[in-house]
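$ fold --in a.seq
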Amino acid sequence: MSSKPPTSAVFPTTAKALQRRLDADLARMARCQQGEHRMQSTQSAGVVICIHCRTLGICPACLPWSAFPDRACQVWCRVHEHTMQPEEGTP
């Protein structure tokens, strides 16, 4: 009976690259959990979405009448970020 060597022994470069990617993804998820999202604009004015964890962000100045969905965060857009007061938190 022959046993196959572990994949990491056969493809050490690939295994290392996958491990680096996994570590980077885990670090990115940890940053998202701490509120450090990488937001990207959508076609809807005042609405952004994190490209990593898909968290929704809404600018309260662009959409003041809208109710925030569960897990959405308040994000001030570039047009309105100068109107943000320090006591309201950070964007």
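$ fold --in b.seq
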Amino acid sequence: MSFNELSEQEQLRRESLAALRALGIDPYPAAEYRVTATAAGISAGFDADDSDTVQKYSDVRLAGRVMSRRIMGSASFFELQDHTGRIQIYVRRDDLCPGDDKTMYNTVFKKLLDIGDWVGVEGFAFITQTGELSVHCRVLTVLSKSLKVLPVVKVADGQVYDAFTDPEARYRHRYVDLAVNPAVRDVFVARSRIISTMRRFFDERGYLEVETPILQPIPGGAAARPFVTHHNALNLELYLRIANELYLKRLIVGGFDGVYEFAKDFRNEGMDRTHNPEFTVMEIYVAWKDYLWMMEFTEQMIAQVAQALHGGTRVKAWGNELDFTPPFRRLTMTEAILKWAEFDITGASEDELRAQCGRLGIAIDPTMGKGKLIDAIFGECCEPHLVQPTFITDYPIEMSPLCKRHRTDPSLTERFELFVNGKELCNAYSELNDPIDQLERFQEQLRLSEKGDDEAMFIDADFVSALEYGMPPTSGMGIGIDRLAMLMTDSQSIQDVLFFPQMKPVKAAAADPVSRYVDEAGIPAEWAEVLQKMGYLTLEAVRKLAPGKLLNDLGGFNKKNKLGLKNPTPEQVKGWIGAE
């Protein structure tokens, strides 16, 4: 990018960068800057009436971004933001520059620093005459010069102005979002606390955190469409994992009592408010347990997460107040469909299920077997009613290829899913450990694949072999961390709880040729080039401007960039944009 392609503000900042270097100031120093205090720490700990705390904060060093400035004569203020919050900094010329040379204040601070720059401040805490906690700056250090302009979000009397709220811009430039929207930072701090609380919950019970392969020869453990890649050295097609279930159960075969993993999984499917192709899941498998035990374990874990984040088990999310106090409600799949779809799926054939979907107006296709037809009915008719935490249990066997048959009804499985706010939050089984039954289930999935179901499971012969060595009775549970974070932080989209969500590529803006400005609007070529440098890449963009503003902007750009062009007259500018 050439200098002339930069915005006016970007050009000015690069000029300030050069000026700093000309003064012998490194705008990107390598040396450690020792920080001894934070904005929040000073705010919480300083008491002007307590001599001990006055002494404690009489010599502090803190670092952060310049977020606002009030430049006056020989004394000024700016607001510094670090990772804990904001604090006002008072800068007095004669304190910052005690000698005859006032360059640091008059030139560096007043003219060469900008909003967004990182600085270090050495000084002491005090209360201003207006009663505001501040740090009186004795030494100011430039730590990093910002060359792009941060959005300026203003807060006055509790009202936010010019907020940086455009979702497209926020998700594509998360670093800017985090810099100007403190509430966004809070969401990700809460997400981290969710994971650390869960990890502590598992570790206290003696379960082992493990890691399993992301690149897998067979995409097993779930019914989903995988991403495919190629291993050059082995000349082998591999898949990004869709689940880590089968590898974790291999470890139970190997003799571990309980294993868990926070894993990145990948599914080559659609994107919406609650789905991202790359997502985080936690799966845990515990020997000697069943799905009834796992239900109690799961509700205790989630209650502990709610307690850690909210100080209790009541959480407001998506317009509802959710109560995560155990025990959660329990309904079988059959009971739920009978209650809300008024249809008994017990013993229903595939044709009967298709007919019921037709009566309910549910879209289906010929590749769907009994399991997917039941799932379609449940999703359409039941899920919206499951607002408070509810375990849906005892799924039909066609829906659960990896789950153990129910101990009292072989047409069902010992499985539950937890639903909250109408969305699935976690999935758990009494795990299937009969290798012959497992192979038969895989073969049924193969028949579905041949029928056209591109989400049917592959046959994993090595996993069947592992089961043939013997896996003890085991229960397993998987929970989506992203969706749990959405609930616990009242976030409306999965993109709000992912630092860098998947986005469509940005299409480069197409610019009109200069000849179009000349031929259709009579704009001289030299001014057409200026307009494009100012960001008006099309004639339509120019014609949307008010003539007075355009005239002023052209004159300002001409002067600041020393172009030496003769400024157009008001009448010429009106003619360019077609204004009368």
